[in-house]
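Tutorial, part two.
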Amino acid sequence: MTVPIGKYYKTFRGVHGILGGLSFIPAVIGAVMGDKSKNPNYFYPPLGDVSLIALIGTLAFGILSTYIVFVYCESSQRRLHPVAPVVLYFAAAVGFCVLIGLYIEFVKVVPISSEKTEVTVSTGYDRTAFVSSSRDLANLSDSELLHVRGPWEDQIQKLWTLNSIAVARVSLWIFYTCVLVCLVSISSFGVYQHAAASGAAGG
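Running the prediction step on this input gives:
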């Protein structure tokens, strides 16, 4: 049965839509908190100077996924297989596990005692020649480097190569966004099925 797109999006006001909307809350909280706050900000990956545009991209892909699910379900050449939401669920679970590993490896929380705040930053995996050639810095851990030099973007780019920082941050963004898209898509399938059932029943 064909579901009008207006009815589909109106159905998001129900339980399935609310559950999908919850997926956006961590990203919004992370944006409000910013990288510098009294508590570590794990709600959205710290991506340096591109954090804002990355957040916009994440939200855009999340919203777009609702339309993609609608088109997928409406296509006369495709029938919704009951395993599709299950595949998305496991994809979200795997993506979240990878995201945890990326956080452990690249995301650091640096306390600023003078301001009684903590800065959440992301680093790279390859240190620069500046660090390798320094006797004082070469043997320090990533957290110690940030404590000594400061958790600011100019210092991070001085301590880790730009390529390694870019790879780490793009990886964080991709897996975070994929997890969100999977969760929103799962709820969107539920919304579509509810809208279709409501239409069939004359609702």
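The two ends are 13 Å apart (CA to CA). In part three we will examine how such features are distributed along the chain.
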